[in-house]
Here is the input.
Amino acid sequence: MDETTTSHLLMGYLDKIDSIVWGTPLQVLLIGTGLFLTLRLGLIQVRSLVRGLRLAFSKEDTESEGDISHFKALMTALVIISVGVWDSGLDSSPLTVTAFRTGLPGVWGGLIVSCGLVLFAFSTILGWAYYGEKCLEYLFGIKMVLPYRILWVAVVFCSGALGTNAFVWTFADIMNGLMAVPNLLCLLLLSGVIAAETKRWGND
Here is the structure.
């Protein structure tokens, strides 16, 4: 069996797993949790819609801390739409690179996006590694930290250096779906705490 056939078989298995993970049970859990919290929090999406839009389109955001404002976070979407490449058939990072390359002279657009992607990917790898490490340390003790770090580095190397984009994104999609289940269940179980904190935050 050659490498291409093996890759197609692996992607076929991953696609099946992905469709199972994001099947009807998880969709029901997602929608159900959303509806339940919407009612429990008193239709907060409707009540705070005007404020949310004002924050999203405001250049100055003095109500929260962060590296960039809500307005700056709209940069990528506005660039893709304004330069007219949103219907080019591309998606993900190639679409963003094309948009910035079209909008900026020379090669600056591609360089900006490439540097941004490298920094984003590196910080994401570190962040997810830290979250997983702390969870394992809490559940099984400090002795699990070193084996976890070794396994994490090996997986990152294999998926990044040897895997295709389709493999990485599908695998990440599966993991995100599996991660969503305990998170959604905890949201339901802690809905009382969420409602209390939301009310307290709204009164501050």
Notes: The two ends are 64 Å apart (CA to CA).
